[in-house]
Amino acid sequence: MSTTYEEEKSNLLEMIKKIESQLAELERIPRYYGKDLVEQALDDQRQRQLKQLRIAKMEPYFGRLDFAEAGREKPVPLYIGKAGVQDAEANEPLVIDWRAPVASLFYSFAGQTDRAQYLSPEGLIEGTVYLKRNIAIRKQQIQRVVDSYVRGGEQTGVVDEFLLYRLGEKKDHRLRDIVSTIQHEQDQIIRAERNQALVIQGVPGSGKTTVALHRLAYLLYQYQDRLRAERFAIFAPNRMFVDYISEVLPELGVGDVQQHTFADWANSFLDQEFSLAEVEANVGEWFALGQTADNKELAWLRYKGSLSFHRRIEAALAELEAFFVPDKPFTAWENKVLPAEEIRRWFDEEYRHDPLLKRKERVFARIKRWLEMEWKEMRGRDPRGTFRKQANQRLRTYMKAWPQPTLWSWYQHCVISQANEMEVTPPAAFLTRLKRKKFDVTDLAPLLHIYTALWGISSERMFDHVVVDEAQDFSPYQLAVLQQFCPSCSFTILGDLLQNIYAHKGISHWRELMDLFAEGSCRYVQLNKSYRSTMEIIQFANEIVRGFARDVAMATPVYRSGEPVQVVPVSTGEREETLLHWVDELMNQGISTLAVVTRTDEESERVATSLREHGVDAHVITSTQAEYHGGLSVIPIYLTKGMEFDAVILTEVDAERYPVDELHAKLLFVGCTRALHRLVLLTTERPSPLLRQAQGRGVARG
Ligand SMILES: Nc1ncnc2c1ncn2[C@@H]1O[C@H](COP(=O)(O)OP(=O)(O)OP(=O)(O)O)[C@@H](O)[C@H]1O
Question: Is the pTM higher than 0.95?
Answer without folding.
Answer: no
